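quick one, 290 residues, struct below
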Amino acid sequence: MSARHPIIAITGSSGAGTTSVKNIFDQIFRRESVRAAFIEGDAFHRYDRVAMRAKMAEEEAKGNRDFSHFSPEANLLDDLQEVFQDYGRKGRGRTRHYIHDTDQADIYGAQPGSFSDWAPLTDSDLLFYEGLHGCVKTDTVDLAPLVDLKIGVVPVINLEWIQKIHRDKATRGYSTEAVMDTILRRMPDYVKYICPQFARTDINFQRVPIVDTSDPFIARWIPTADESMIVIRFANPRGIDFPYLLSMIHGSFMSRANSIVAPGNKLDIAMQLILTPLILQLMEKKRRAS
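---
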């Protein structure tokens, strides 16, 4: 952690909705005139799309059917830790972009499935990470202690799968069977490396559908915000003004001493109300330390 150079990390699985949450942070940063340097978790994948397919085939030939982007070995986590450490000390670091589609290919001048060149982070007030491994701990890497504000985005598992199935079929042309294979391949590392991060976050936002999602592989639609509730869990509820939040978030209630439940369509306002003061606190600590 660093008062002068704070770091915020959103961590969540593929299909969890971290990109949507990032957009809410973007709104807060613009409104509060906070300059953020951004890191995408995908930028620290070890392999591009072609090399990853080859590596997966190689691992499968060895009997390892669980190798995936969730695996520490498939990511440059040591490099990511070094960036977090350098930014915390000096406000500097580097990143790149993983190019997902043709639109991004036009922007970065490289093929979909490849990486842009490494480049220094922009001048900034804070560093913002969004991806799979923002709070991960392995035998060689421990990122959570380096992050000042840790946010988990955690839909219930069936909803997470529904979102991933619909996204991958619509934007990547995958079949349901191909997505199911990806989910099964990732499951051991999901349990070992993704889930434990949510016990290390400061706040978790978990979307819970209130419609039947018993079989996510046949769901025709993603449950809407109006068909969901949001469970907001605070690791440390001390200092959180729960009466104020309950009065401002219509239809919300407390389910535990550290948890608020709110209608799914109130996610935006809930995040704005909860996160804006926390970001401003980081900026005030930065100002005092400078």
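The first strand starts at residue 7 and ends at 11.
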